[in-house]
Amino acid sequence: PELKWKAANYAVSYEVQIATSYTFTTSLVQDYQGITDLSRVVDPLPDGKYYWRVRAMNANNVYGAWATSRYFTVDTQAPSAPILSTPLNNASVVGTPTFAWKASSSAVRYQFAYGTSSDPLDGFVYQSAELTTTTHKPPIMQVMTPYFWFVRARDAAGNWSDWSTPPFTITSVPPVPAAPALDGPVSGFLTNNTTPELKWKTVNYAVSYELQVSATSTFTTPLVQDYQGITDLSRVVDPLPDGKYYWRVRAMNVNNVYGAWTASRYFTVDTKAPSAPNPVSLADGAPTTSTKPALSVSATSGAVRYRFQIAADNSFTSPVRDVTQAGTAYTTALSLIHI
């Protein structure tokens, strides 16, 4: 090490002593006289604790008093490499874990690293800053990639140990995906389309989806349709006969692990038209004195809306009124003089 001091008035040279005892008696290790600079790089020292002091000499070769001594410690021995603890060697863990190791004697700092090679000389994918703890959670690791992880220790003198040997291996597997949120159609949807499109929202860690369509809410076998390996967020189902159907979706991660099913929804396919309604009033061919006659038909099973047309010819090529409504009675809003 280089030892330094401040200039003293009337000094022409300095003397530095190094000893293994603060009494500087027979324990002197080095003694440098006639130094004209304000520092001295000492000769090589073995590991140990050393005391040092300085005094000045004037032009008349008279020494002044010794400075109050200080001490330093030479330590060239690195601490032992840390012993890795968790995760265990060859572990597969969900996501990115917190790594832990045992404390190394005399260590004050640690450094964590991982890479794709068991040899630290090949470099690392990630290397932490210096740590004061014996645990570390790195940024998100690439899933399904085997990694080797290492730790090394540093003491107060700045000596680094070797990287831990042998390193542990770890493979990060993705978390189980959550159940997707269904997007459409809404539950209770009624359609005359035999191939409706079913949609859902994306979820983290999903690489594909499974869709099931069932005739029962319990999804017991046999299923009506079961689609696996869907990479989109929707599926147009194969043609379905008329009926009520339940559907649900689940996601699968890159490790081929499925998440939970969504809550099911249902839809109804109905391609059969209701029967034609029967006129109630006015009767066929009946005259009326009203220029806005009230028309009505009988209710038809399954019907939710009714369409009324009024035309001057029985081909209804150019109806004067064409109205669709929920009720079975309709009063014309147009004055009819004679039709």
Task: Report what the structure shows.
It is a single chain. The protein has strands at residues 2-4, 13-19, 28-35, 39-41, 48-57, 70-74, 84-86, 91-94, 99-101, 107-115, 126-127, 135-136, 146-155, 168-173, 182-184, 189-191, 197-200, 208-214, 225-230, 234-236, 243-252, 265-269, 279-281, 294-297, 306-310, 321-325, 329-331. It has 339 residues and is mainly β. It has a five-stranded mixed beta sheet, with no helix packed on it. It has a five-stranded mixed beta sheet with strand order 16-22-21-18-19, with no helix packed on it. A four-stranded antiparallel beta sheet has the order 3-2-5-6, with no helix packed on it.
Structural class category: mainly beta
Assembly type of the shown chains? Answer: single chain
End-to-end distance, in Å? 120 Å
The largest sheet is: 5 strands, mixed
As a percent range, the share of helical residues equals under 10%
Taken in chain order, the helices and strands follow as: EEEEEEEEEEEEEEEEEEEEEEEEEEE
The total count of strands amounts to 27
Shape: rod-shaped
Could you tell me the strand content as a percent range?
Answer: 35-45%
Mean pLDDT: 93
Radius of gyration: 45 Å
Number of helices: 0
Low-confidence parts lasting 5 or more residues at pLDDT below 50? none
Strand sequence of the main sheet, in spatial order?
8-14-13-10-11
